[in-house]
Write a structure and sequence with these properties.
This protein has two domains: about 325 residues, Alpha-Beta Plaits, CATH 3.30.70; about 110 residues. Strand 9 and strand 10 form a beta hairpin. The strands form four sheets. The protein has a four-stranded antiparallel sheet, sandwiched between helices. Helix 2 crosses helix 4 and helix 14 packs parallel to helix 16. About 50% of the residues lie in helices and about 10% in strands.
Length: about 450
């Protein structure tokens, strides 16, 4: 029995995995997932220790997953298949995360933080898996300092500063659904020498549908029979990185003047000549084709693939790149402005309904709550693009948001103008202690 599989089921690793899964679940937009996480948390020690015993005894079995057809009606109208999403149970997600934390070891950057960020560490027992975890060119799903959007952008910006003039970008068609599991599992088995870990990893990658007969004939869109991994599983990006590690480095070794960066299923290649760019793209297509993948042609869809001169600018990972500048893409800016508009409009509607009809005012729609939430969202958005060096997009966003907040405050002022002080207090997020007491069923009559 290998030390690595023992590390997977250790209490420290399993509880650390739950902390990560819990945070993600509680931040989900799905009330069902939030509720499940809250219920799990109340008895998490009992659940986790049960899973540890089952893993020790070789009795642990991953649950079947729920298949969901995302955007079904919209995509069918466009004559496209729905997007297959596999919803895993918290039990599955916890153990999958525990496996990943051993296959992709990390340490906290600052142990004084309750929710620390991590750095990659090397474990000699993992063999060449360490190289995958520190890949220079396949950076999606990796931990600092090797992974992340910033790392990918920096590689492309550096290549352009050294003379790259032309670019090619494409998604890999059906990436997650076409990843062959066997070569990935065997790589883990050979590099670790831990059969039990490799078998557990294989079971964690496998997708078994609980509702195949309810998917209107679309069950075949989901991973099955050893091909494909669940998009959203913590093991999926790792599996893709293992599979494509050699290709990533072979393209970059093809010739000087070529830089190829892959972020999960998004490939960007820049080169100093058309000949070198064409050769690199051809090699990528050849290698991917041998594994059952395809790239899009730039003529098919600008969203999926494009090629051209770097001087004209191009999009990559939510950014717009030019040889000497990087900024959030117009789509990224438009999206955050749209989110702000939706947030403020929803609050305005709630305040107007309260003014017109009375009743209970939802405190989460109060100006204080809404503006605080909007501020947090903008703060997080800026942090995700903090590496961008063109401030123009940020200035434009600030101006648009400031004007919209000013308009919001004016509308709130109009809606609350005729309200009595106690009603205004509710709108601004101040609860009525008397109403709270009445809700408890307490006696509200004056004492004699």
């Amino acid at each position: 029995m290998g030390d690595l599989v023992k590390a997977v089921r250790s209490e420290s690793n399993m509880f650390a995995a739950w902390r990560h899964v819990k945070k993600s679940a509680l931040n989900s937009g799905s009330p069902e997932i939030k509720g499940a996480a809250a219920r799990f948390e109340h008895q998490h020690q009992r659940y986790i220790r049960r899973y540890i015993r089952e893993l020790q005894q070789g009795k642990f079995v991953f649950d079947k997953v729920e298949g969901v057809l995302a955007d079904k009606e919209k995509r069918e109208k466009a004559q496209k298949d729905p997007r297959p999403i596999a919803i895993a149970t918290l039990k599955n997600r916890l153990v999958q995360r525990a496996i990943l934390q051993i296959l992709q070891p990390r340490k906290a950057r600052d142990t004084s933080e309750v929710d620390p960020r991590f750095l990659t560490v090397t474990n000699p027992a993992l063999g060449k898996i360490n190289a995958v975890n520190s890949s220079e060119f396949g950076v999606g799903g990796l931990i600092k300092p090797h992974g992340g959007v910033e790392q990918a952008i920096n590689l492309i910006m550096s290549a352009m500063s050294q003379g790259a003039r032309l670019f090619y970008r494409s998604d890999i068609k059906g990436f997650f659904n076409d990843i062959p599991q066997e070569p990935v599992v065997e790589f883990v088995r050979n590099e670790t020498g831990d059969d039990e870990l490799a078998d557990l990893f294989a079971n964690g990658l496998d997708v078994q549908l609980a509702n195949a007969d309810q998917l209107d004939g679309y069950a075949d869109l989901f991973p099955s029979n050893g091909r494909g991994v669940a998009q959203g599983s913590s093991l999926s990006a790792f599996a893709g990185n293992v599979l494509l590690y050699e290709m990533d480095h072979e393209i970059n070794s093809l010739d000087v003047g070529v830089t190829a960066v892959r972020y999960i299923d998004d490939i960007m290649i820049v080169a100093d000549t058309q000949e070198r760019l064409n050769a690199s793209v051809s090699l990528a297509k050849l290698k991917l084709g041998g594994m059952g993948f395809e790239l899009y042609e730039p003529t098919e869809s600008a969203d999926k693939a494009e090629t051209g001169k770097c001087s004209d600018g191009f999009g990559f990972l939510g950014c717009t790149l030019h040889p000497k500048s990087c900024s959030p893409s117009s789509a990224s800016v438009k999206r955050v402005i749209g989110d702000a508009e939706e947030t403020l409009s929803k609050s305005q509607g709630a305040i107007k309904r309260f003014k017109d009809k009375g009743g209970i005012f939802p405190s989460e729609q109060s100006p204080s709550s809404v503006l605080y939430a909007l501020g947090k969202k903008l703060y997080g958005w800026q942090k995700s693009f903090a590496f961008c060096d063109d401030i123009t997009s940020f200035q434009y966003l600030d101006e648009r948001i400031a004007k919209r907040v000013e308009k919001y405050n004016q509308i709130v002022g109009r809606h609350t103008r005729g309200l009595v002080p106690s009603e205004k207090a509710k709108v601004y997020g101040i609860p009525s202690t008397a109403e709270m007491s009445c809700a408890k069923g307490w006696n509200t009559s004056a004492a004699s």
